[in-house]
Amino acid sequence: MTYVITVACVDIMDRSCMDECPVDCIHEGARMLYIKPDECIDCGACEPACPQNAIFRDDELPAGLESFRRVNADFFALDDLGPDVNGTGPVDHPSVAAHPSEG
Questions:
Q1: To which H or E segment does residue 5 belong?
Q2: Residue 34 in 3-state DSSP?
Q3: Rounded distance, CA 51 to CA 100, Å?
Q4: How far apart, in whole angstroms, are the C-alpha atoms of residue 72 and residue 32?
Q5: For residues 34 and 75, is the Cβ–Cβ distance under 8 A?
Q6: How far is Cα 32 from Cα 41, in angstroms, rounded to an integer?
Q7: What is the pTM (predicted TM-score) of this model?
Q8: What residues pair up with 33 in beta bridges, in sequence order?
C-alpha cells in the first residue's frame, strides 16, 4: 500500500506533506509533488497535512483519479523523469506537464 498525490497538487505544491513525511518519499517535480511508491511506508502522515486534499491511499483513489497511481510511479521509473535528472531542474510526468495551467 502507498499514498498517491493527485491533480489538486498541480501548480500549488504546498509542501506541508513533505514536512510531515518521516521517510522523505515525497519528491518535487516542476508543477507537482510525487510519492515514490517503493519508499512510502504507508504511515499516512502526509494525507492530513495536505491543504488541497490531493493525497489519497492508492486503494481509495476517487473515481477519475486512478491514473495518478501510475503517474506517481512512472515519475521515478522512467529514465527521463525524476527530480533534477540532468541537473536541469525538476521535470514532471508528461501528463502533468501537459495539464492546463489554472493561471
A1: strand 3-5
A2: strand
A3: 21
A4: 10
A5: yes
A6: 20
A7: 0.87
A8: 28
Separation CA 81–CA 64 (nearest Å): 23
Q: What is the Cα–Cα distance from 81 to 101, expressed in whole angstroms? A: 20
- E strands, the chain, in order: 3-5, 26-28, 33-35, 55-57
C-alpha cell, 89: 531542474
Euclidean distance between CA atoms 89 and 57, whole angstroms: 28
Q: What span, in angstroms and rounded, lies between the C-alpha atoms of 92 and 87?
A: 14
pLDDT at 90: 73
pLDDT surpasses 70 at 6:
yes
User: 52 CB contacts (<8 Å, ≥6 apart)?
Assistant: 8, 9, 12, 14
Q: pLDDT digits over 45-72, tens only? A: 999 999 999 999 999 999 999 999 999 9
CA–CA dist 14, 77 (Å, integer): 24
Distance between CA atoms of residues 43 and 35, nearest Å: 13
**What grid cell was written down for 43?**
504511515
Grid cell listed for 11: 501548480
